[in-house]
Design a protein that fits this description.
Keywords: Cobalamin biosynthesis, Methyltransferase, S-adenosyl-L-methionine, Transferase. This is Precorrin-6Y C5,15-methyltransferase (Decarboxylating). The chain is an alpha/beta fold. It is built from 14 helices and 19 strands. The chain folds into three domains: 116 residues, Tetrapyrrole methylase, N-terminal domain (Cobalt-precorrin-4 Transmethylase, domain 1); 97 residues, 2-Layer Sandwich (Methyltransferase, Cobalt-precorrin-4 Transmethylase, Domain 2), CATH 3.30.950; 172 residues, Vaccinia Virus protein VP39 (Rossmann fold, 3-Layer(aba) Sandwich). The strands form four sheets. It has a seven-stranded mixed beta sheet with strand order 13-12-11-14-15-19-16, sandwiched between helices. A five-stranded parallel beta sheet has the order 3-2-4-1-5, with helices on both faces. A hairpin with a 7-residue loop joins strand 8 and strand 9.
């Protein structure tokens, strides 16, 4: 279907908003390099003030007699916009792609300015298009002006993530942080310009070079199989079919033990797991260690809730990877003896300790995660663990969980079958 864009028509007429004020027009600079639409050209021709980054001002046809403000720190530009708007001067703000998506619209509205937006193709949409990939199951995060950790953990947790980067928080740093995870990256530089470049790379390749700013990073689950090349183009990895890539799992959590392969009942029971996962507070943007993982059930349920997870287990035959694949999550498995194997792992936000004694707990506390959850069956280990965590600066709470499950008797009656009591300690850093 073809026809005029009603939003573009409205932008060209500078339609007043409630109260009669002419809004600030926010123009998206097209990341796909398409020609400027007539509405945008008309708005620029009639503007009294145009605000934008230097690269955007250089790329658009701003009349020579129009005042321009180059964006650096946003506050001075907001002050000038506010004054111009109060004086009735037609004002235009240039921004990348869709300015309402991780863009300047939020800040303009917070400053009390009425806005009308003429969006363009976003850099994320353009990056996936340039790579020839679908992205209906992808998650979009930003590292621009924010701590890199949550964006990096999203790349570690999910099979398709787009990252809006910033200097010092881009493909080089994310590539280095993805060492040990099976990922392939697409780095899209200078989208929509003559210098546009789209590169497929492994995390190691991305970490070994510098990239032009601005760029968009796509982090994708690497193809499986012994002959797969993670640096070559291929489709996006498996995504959740319920269109909720970072939401709570459709089948819930605290799943029955039968949902996991395990040996000799060596698995955290569902009742204990429910409390442990609640205390760990997993979500997208956080990294959880599951130390002494066994079947991996605690870590897998954290991954189902969106967290990035490293499962540490001394037994190379432990079925963690099988269980993770069964539940459709990506858990990085590190095999070796703790605490030695913990050295060199990225710092966690929360740690579940299912075994290893005080040496492991000391090594965990030394990394200063926000939360530590410990399960103990032996009473003589409780006091040393509590004292150790308190000495490390944690506030410690604890509960003993004793569950009794329904069990059928041969005559059709029902009894209660007790499970072994377990103490759950939670250490939280103030």
């Amino acid at each position: 279907m073809t026809g005029r864009d009603p939003a573009a028509d409205g932008a060209a007429r500078s339609v007043p908003v409630a109260g009669g004020a002419v809004p600030v027009l926010v123009l998206g600079v097209d990341a796909a390099g398409r020609p400027w639409p007539p509405a945008a050209l008309a708005a620029l021709a009639g503007a009294g003030l145009v605000v934008g980054a230097a690269r955007h001002l250089a790329a658009v046809p701003v009349p020579p007699d129009v005042e321009t403000v180059v964006l650096g720190p946003l506050t001075p530009a907001l002050d000038r916009l506010t004054a111009a708007h109060a004086a009735g001067l037609p004002t235009v703000v240039l921004a990348s792609g869709d300015p309402g998506f991780f863009g300047v619209v939020r800040r303009l509205r917070a400053a009390g300015l009425p806005v009308r937006v003429l969006p363009a193709v976003s850099s994320v949409a353009a990056a996936f298009a340039r790579a020839g990939l679908d992205w209906d199951g992808a998650v979009v995060v930003t590292a621009h002006g924010r701590d890199l950790g949550p964006a990096l953990h999203a790349c570690r947790a999910l099979p398709a993530v787009a990252v809006l980067t910033a200097p010092g928080a881009g493909a080089t740093e994310i590539g280095a942080g993805l060492a040990g995870w099976s990922r392939r990256l697409v780095v899209a530089e200078h989208l929509g310009s003559a210098a546009e470049r789209v590169t497929w790379a492994t995390p190691e390749q991305a970490a070994a070079r510098r990239w032009a700013d601005p760029h968009v990073l796509l982090s994708l689950a690497a193809p499986a199989g012994p002959d797969a090349d993670p640096a070559t183009p291929a489709g996006v990895g498996p995504v959740r079919a319920d269109n909720q890539p970072a939401a709570a799992p459709a089948d819930g959590w605290a799943l029955p033990e039968s949902a996991y392969r395990h040996r000799d009942s060596m698995i955290t029971k569902a009742e204990v797991r429910a409390l442990a996962v609640a205390r760990l507070r997993p979500r997208l943007g956080r990294l959880v260690w599951d130390v002494g993982a066994g079947s991996g059930s605690v870590g897998i349920e954290c991954a189902l809730l969106g967290a990035a997870v490293i499962a540490v287990e001394r037994d190379p035959a432990a079925p963690i990877a099988v269980n993770a694949a069964r539940h459709g999550v990506d858990v990085r498995v590190v095999t070796g003896d703790a605490p030695a194997v913990l050295r060199g792992l990225p710092d966690p936000d929360a740690v579940f300790v299912g075994g290893g004694g005080t040496a492991v707990l000391t090594a965990v506390a030394d990394r200063r995660p926000a939360r530590v959850v410990v399960t103990l069956a032996a009473l003589d280990r409780i006091a040393p663990a509590v004292h150790l965590l308190r000495a490390a600066g944690y506030t410690v709470t604890g509960s003993q969980l004793t569950a009794a499950r329904l069990a059928d008797l041969p005559d059709g009656s029902i009894r209660l079958a007790a499970t072994n009591p377990v103490v759950v300690l939670t250490g939280e850093r103030p």
